[in-house]
Design goal:
Distance between the termini: 24 Å
Number of helices: 6
Shape: globular
CATH topology: paralog of FGE (formylglycine-generating enzyme)
Radius of gyration: 17 Å
Strand content: 15-25%
Mean pLDDT: 89
Amino acid sequence: MKKNVNLLIFKAWRLTNLKQVLAAILSVFVLLPVSAGGDNIITTSANMEFVLVTGGTFKMGNTFEQDGFEDELPVHQVTLSDFYISTFEVTQAEWKAVMGSNPSTFKGDMKPVENISWFDAIEFCNKLSEKEGLKPAYTIGRNNRATCDWSANGYRLPTEAEWEYASRGGKESKGYIYSGSNAIDEVGFYKENSMSMSHPTGLKVPNELGIYDMSGNVWEWCWDWYSNSYSPEAVTNPHGVEQGIERCRRGGSWAQISKSARSSNRLGTPPELKFNYVGIRLVKNAK
């Protein structure tokens, strides 16, 4: 119970009206139940909250409800192991506590960090891991060639498959177009409702797993190299293609139309580039 109360305070801190506070209460006591094996929520020493995503098998890509683009095809079967994913996008306060500075355009401690490159993102993952005494996931070698130790217990970026599975609600998925709803205004900030800026994390309705802002607000860097199509074969814990020139980002943002915020939508971007509508969300192995 104490953990649930702390979680309620943590969420209410981000909210601005009674309706949102009541939604936070429901998310703690209804949407995020304690499983038989223990809490499905962990909180880091820096008060970053992660929710357990129970592994399973799903159809990844432009499924019937998504009405997406050709690079979301072919639809293929993906099986994933359990993992933890951050309930909120990484905030500017969290970034500054680890990196010592705030590169964001739209300043605000509880707003998502943005204006960061993919390389900045993996550096943040490693530094946060080191700060908490965990094994960093990434090694950066010559010519900025990055490798990932998938067995490390530190923080990392989600793979595209992990990101999409979590966005769709994992095993609790109700088949929504966006992360948590078929109505984008309920769950995300996008071009038509954002007033041309990012917003504090956690102000919209969470998805089936209690995760906020996976549709809209800021795009989120993923690990994978971008390719313009998927392989049709069934895969387990995929890490994407072996090489490329762009890294994937997911989720849409305050600057794009609603179609970009669909759970299956994907985009490739050179990893050295920075935009004030691109941020990050972290994952961590469950074992």
